[in-house]
Amino acid sequence: MFIIFGTRGLKHTVKEGDTLYNSCPNCQQGNLVSKLYRRWFTLFFIPVIPLDVIDRFYECDKCSGAYNENVKSVLQHSKEDMEKEQQEAQRVYAIALIATMTHMSIIDGEFAPEEEREIMDNMAKFPQFETVLNETFTKVKNYGNKDNQVFSLLNDARNKLSSESLINLLAQAAVVLLADGKIEKEEENLMKEYLIACGLPKDMYYTLIEKLRARPLTEFGKEQMN
Question: Over pLDDT 90: what percentage of the chain?
């Protein structure tokens, strides 16, 4: 009989954690609930023993926006300062997303028109950062991860974004890996490298895959999964 064991990260609500009511910087209405990611030892894929805490953060119960714990201090700032913080977090997220998507697209030596369209569609969601996103796209498309530029952007993002936001970012980017309807071992290893660059353990890969599977597929994703 084979015994299958491993570790994985699971999200929990912190029972003793505080709730920041009507405080979400994104939707302005939701309550920010204290959450954490904890690593578990699994036996036959069932979590049986809780291990270390990976990250603590707040998550909006209305729009699912996720924030570092330092959002508590940010909320004490003026409305103008809060908007600046939110805009900077969005900028960091958008740059890291486009860099990662582009790198994923070129990693196999090919750059399909459908992949480029997917990237352009995501860039269009952040018109306020058009210039820097175009620069990021061109640089990564031409030079890949030269000088660890993609990993550096993910590493920088960990200072502004919660673990939940980083995993959502990678899940959003990973749709370009679904060209053949499955993720190859090399692609799995690449996503684990991205997780490490984000300051997260590589066994969060399975949490990332669950996020990816739960995402509504874009037209590109639907075409490739059919």
Answer: 55
Summarised one tens digit per residue, pLDDT across range 156-178 is 999 889 999 999 999 999 888 77
- The domain total for the chain is 2
pLDDT in tens, 56-101: 999 999 999 999 888 888 888 888 888 888 899 999 999 999 999 9
Residues 86, 14 share a domain? no
Torsion of CA 172, 98, 27, 221, to 10 degrees: -30
CA 167 to CA 194: how far, in whole Å?
10
The tokens 């929990």 sit on which residue? 12
Cβ neighbours of residue 163 under 8 Å, at least 6 residues apart? 37, 54, 55, 57, 66, 198, 200, 204
Cβ 8 vs Cβ 206: under 8 Å: yes
Q: What is the rounded distance in angstroms from the CA atom of residue 136 to the CA atom of residue 143?
A: 10
Q: Which domain holds residue 213?
A: 79-225
30, 57, 74 - which closes a domain: 74
User: Do 60 and 107 belong to one domain?
Assistant: no
Sorted by sequence, the CB contacts under 8 Å of residue 106 that are 6+ apart come out as 140, 141, 144
DSSP at 125: T
Cα gap 163→37, rounded to integer Å: 8
Q: Are residues 106 and 44 in the same domain?
A: no
